[in-house]
């Protein structure tokens, strides 16, 4: 039985994504918990799908107004993530967390359902305007927009800002898909839509599900994490026709040498696995790789979802 006094705790845990939580006092064990979870999930507030972006093809408009008080990454991150990874918790706490994770997935699906097809650009937040990597990412944003695709990044500064900026300058759509992180920074002013996720694995699913290619610019651990996640999914054929482009030959050369001289030599990867990644300094070559990948998924592109007024999609 779930004590009614736990209602305040549940409201604190789930109120952010589910809104006001009704008091629900079950009458018996397992069925009661499942029913309560369904009740909470049914009350989930869905994020409205993004509107169609304005036509920017005639000029490069100024950056949109952004609430500078809103942070790109907040404090030490959400403490619930640490609790989630810190071993078993109370059964009710775990059940509530499952509902929270499910609600976050649904919120992401709703927010990104109509933004694609996307190309995700990864890279360091530390490169500033004028840096060659920044300018290369900016040019890739323009190329992606020129193909009629949406540029998706983490929504932060550095490489992310550069790619979003290039897309905006070319009249394309630009999305920021962020995770709550320790460092406090602001979202860049070039995104049309900015979405935050509590859990890394939810964000990863969104980036792969709505992207048709990954472009990895020079970056740190986060970039490597996303890069090898994508490479593993391609290697294991969980996703097909998915280009993975590494831009910055000099930067990536030591890593590629390690893959060839150590992993391949030890037999832990196959030679064909190295061909998953296209490595280049050329925006033309990178764009061509993206175009080939998009062409391979032409059938799925032809089945674009339609908005349904009954679901509040306008």
Overview of the structural elements:
The protein is α/β, with parallel strands linked by helices and 314 residues long. It has a domain at 116-311: 3-Layer(aba) Sandwich (Rossmann fold), CATH 3.40.50. The protein contains 11 helices and 7 strands. A 7-stranded parallel sheet has the order 4-3-2-1-5-6-7, with helices on both faces. Helix 1 runs parallel beside helix 4 (91-112), helix 5 (132-146) packs parallel to helix 6 (159-169) and helix 5 runs parallel beside helix 10. The longest helix is centred in the first third of the chain and has 22 residues, at 91-112. The two termini are 42 Å apart. 35% of the residues are buried.
What is the fold's blueprint, element by element?
Elements: H1 7-18, H2 29-42, H3 79-84, H4 91-112, E1 118-122, H5 132-146, E2 150-153, H6 159-169, E3 174-179, E4 193-197, H7 200-209, E5 211-216, H8 221-235, E6 244-247, H9 249-266, E7 277-280, H10 283-296, H11 298-301
Parallel strand pairs: 1-2, 1-5, 2-3, 3-4, 5-6, 6-7
Helix pairs in contact: 1-4, 2-4, 5-6, 5-10
Average residue pLDDT: 79
> What's the story with the biggest beta sheet?
7 strands, parallel
Query: How would you write the strand order of the largest sheet?
Result: 4-3-2-1-5-6-7
CATH names the topology of one domain as Rossmann fold
DSSP, total strands: 7
Name the helix and strand elements from N-terminus to C-terminus, one letter apiece.
HHHHEHEHEEHEHEHEHH
Q: Helical residue percent?
A: 40-55%
Provide the low-confidence segments as ranges: 24-31, 43-51, 57-76
The number of helical elements comes to 11
> What is the second-level CATH architecture of one domain?
3-Layer(aba) Sandwich
**How does the overall form come out from the CA principal axes?**
globular
Structural class: alpha/beta
Query: Which CATH C-level class of one domain is it?
Result: Alpha Beta
Strand proportion: 5-15%
Kindly provide the radius of gyration, computed on alpha-carbon positions and rounded to a whole number of angstroms. 21 Å
Ends apart, CA distance between termini: 42 Å
């Amino acid at each position: 039985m779930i004590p009614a006094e736990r209602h305040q705790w549940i409201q604190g845990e789930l109120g952010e994504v589910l809104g006001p939580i009704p008091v629900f006092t079950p009458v018996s064990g397992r069925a009661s918990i499942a029913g309560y979870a369904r009740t909470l999930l049914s009350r989930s507030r869905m994020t409205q799908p993004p509107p169609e972006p304005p036509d920017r093809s005639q000029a490069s408009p100024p950056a949109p107004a952004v609430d500078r008080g809103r942070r790109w990454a907040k404090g030490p991150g959400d403490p619930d993530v640490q609790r989630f990874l810190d071993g078993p918790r109370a059964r009710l706490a775990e059940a509530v967390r499952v509902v929270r994770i499910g609600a976050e997935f649904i919120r992401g699906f709703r927010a990104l359902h109509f933004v694609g097809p996307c190309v995700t650009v990864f890279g360091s937040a530390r490169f500033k305007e004028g840096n060659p990597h920044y300018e290369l990412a900016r040019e890739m944003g323009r190329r992606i927009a020129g193909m009629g695709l949406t540029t998706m990044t983490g929504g932060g500064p550095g490489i992310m800002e550069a790619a979003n900026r290039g897309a905006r300058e070319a009249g394309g759509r630009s999305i920021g898909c962020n995770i709550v992180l320790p460092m406090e920074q602001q979202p860049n002013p070039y995104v049309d839509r900015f979405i935050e996720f509590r859990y890394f694995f939810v964000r990863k699913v969104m980036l792969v599900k709505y992207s048709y290619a990954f472009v990895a610019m020079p970056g740190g651990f986060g970039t490597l994490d996303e890069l090898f996640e994508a490479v593993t999914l391609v290697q294991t054929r969980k996703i097909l026709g998915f280009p993975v482009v590494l831009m910055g030959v000099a930067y990536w050369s030591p890593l590629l040498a390690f893959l060839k001289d150590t992993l391949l030599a030890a037999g832990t990867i196959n030679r064909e696995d190295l061909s998953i990644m296209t490595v280049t300094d050329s925006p033309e070559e990178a764009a061509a790789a993206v175009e080939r990948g998009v062409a391979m998924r032409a059938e799925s592109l032809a089945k674009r979802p339609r908005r349904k007024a009954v679901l509040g999609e306008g």
